Amino acid sequence: MQEKCLRARHIARAASASSLYRDSPLRMPPRTLQSLAHALAAAPDLDAALVALGEGLAEIDRSACIALLRYDGRREMLVDRLTPNGGAVRRTPVETTFDHLSAPIRRAVTGGGQFVELGEQSVEYARLFGLPPFTDGGLLALRGLRFDGNLAAIVALYEPKKIFGTRSSERFGSSIALFELGLARFLEREARDEAVRTLEDVTQRVHGEYIKKLAVLEEQLVSARRAAETPTRGIPAADAAQIVALERDAAHAAEDARRARRRSAGVEQQLGAAVERLEQSHIELHRRSEALRQKTRTLYLIEKVLMLDSQADDPRQLVDELLGLVGDDMQAQRCSLMLRAPEPDYLYLAAARGLAPHIVEGSRIAIGDGVSGRVAASRQPLLVQDVAEAQTHPLLQDQYFTTGSFISFPLVYHDELVGVVNLTNRAQCGVFVEEDVERVRLLGFVISLVVSHAGLADRLMDVMHAA
User: Fold this and answer.
1) Model confidence over 380-425: pLDDT tens digits?
2) N or C: which terminus of the chain has fewer CB atoms within 10 Å of its end residue's CB?
3) What is the spatial distance between Cα 53 and Cα 397, in angstroms, rounded to a whole number?
4) In this structure, what DSSP letter does residue 149 have?
5) For residue 361, how many C-alpha atoms fall within 13 Å in the half-sphere facing its CB?
6) Neighbours of 209 (CB within 10 A)
7) Rounded to an integer, what distance in angstroms lies between the CA atom of residue 456 and that of residue 447?
């Protein structure tokens, strides 16, 4: 009986640990951020971006709901609520002030950058914002999204209470950061369109007033001239001073119109400069979004490397997977991984992809010879971008080297040389740059850690000898 009780306790603890692991941030679907970044970049409008954000939340927690509260800074009010529902977005007027929140919460939300938990007040404010209720109550978190230094919108994330596991708001922070970049792109487009409409309205109004006033003056001048030409019909002759005054008014109107056109040209020039600045800002935003996407992918690859270390038992499979990860991330069609050989001052080829047929696994190279040997000796990465410069390296003078750009990076862990990774033939004849070296540095450190802790160099050599 006692043995059965102990066994039941072990099963309960295992189930609890499994639940915690299942709800932890590391169990977040590894491609959620990558797919969300692609969807936001391709979204034609805010509704499509919000639908993609809702789908990203559904991959984490299907019971949670999210809404975007648009904020009007001039009126200091939350004007409407945008809620993703399936493949569409439902818009609902809110028309409520921001003062309903307490001052500390209001300051934290206005500052943006992180979710603000409402705790016991969640149900009350969820009802105020029109969010669907949960049977056992829920937890509401708000995060302000800023644009051009001011609050532009608020993301409301409402989820049911959980006994175990991590809050969805903690696991969804990176996705909201991506969405904030996309929101800035749409707000810039709205600001640019509004500026164009304002300029067109001002120009049309000034031109219309000028035409109207000029028509009235011309009509008065024609009437005065007719009166002056027909004095015999009983119509009194027009006063010469009145004609001069009308002509002077017409000249003033023409001058006013000229000034209005000049002001309109100045406004148009300012608008053109503003549009150019907006376009530059959009380009910079796209660049930062692309950098964030690359960093997100690198983090995903690091997580995958660590998962491979814990799951792969075959050293040959593990070393192939490690090389495949860094090669795919850098889009290198030809790559190799050299590890420290048992013989002093030698490296051996542990894994390769796209090399010449006569180069086989296990091939030795002395430290100090060739590209890999020199990189191993200096422990400094080597980046080559020019074809002419690349041809000076004897190991790369073959028909399989096509792009003229490569990276050779030393793998070092605790001041001990682990090996060298080589990357060449970037897809679509691309050229490696300095930023690529920094990405390889991060992946190379993780690979060095895995190789060292798993004793991969010796284990793989034993497998090669056994074969």
Assistant:
1) 999 888 655 555 554 455 444 556 688 999 999 988 999 999 998 8
2) N
3) 49
4) T
5) 16
6) 14
7) 10
* CA–CA separation, 192 and 215 (whole Å): 35
| E-strand stretches of 102-221 | 116-117, 138-147, 150-160
Helices and strands: H and E segment counts in the chain:
13, 12
For residue 333, with 0-12 CB atoms within 10 Å meaning exposed, 13-18 middle and 19 or more buried, which class applies? middle
CB burial string 210-245: b at 16+ within 10 A, e below: beebbeebeebbeebeebbeeeeeeeeebeeeebee
What's the pTM value of the predicted model, to 2 decimals?
Answer: 0.43
Q: Which SS3 state, helix, strand or coil, does residue 235 take?
A: coil
- Between β-strands 65-72 and 150-160, what pairing exists: parallel, antiparallel or unpaired? antiparallel
Burial of 397 (0-12, 13-18, 19+ CB in 10 A): exposed
Cα angle at 55 between 49 and 126, to 5 degrees?
A: 90
Residue with tokens 């091939």: 363
Distance CA 294, CA 430 (A): 16
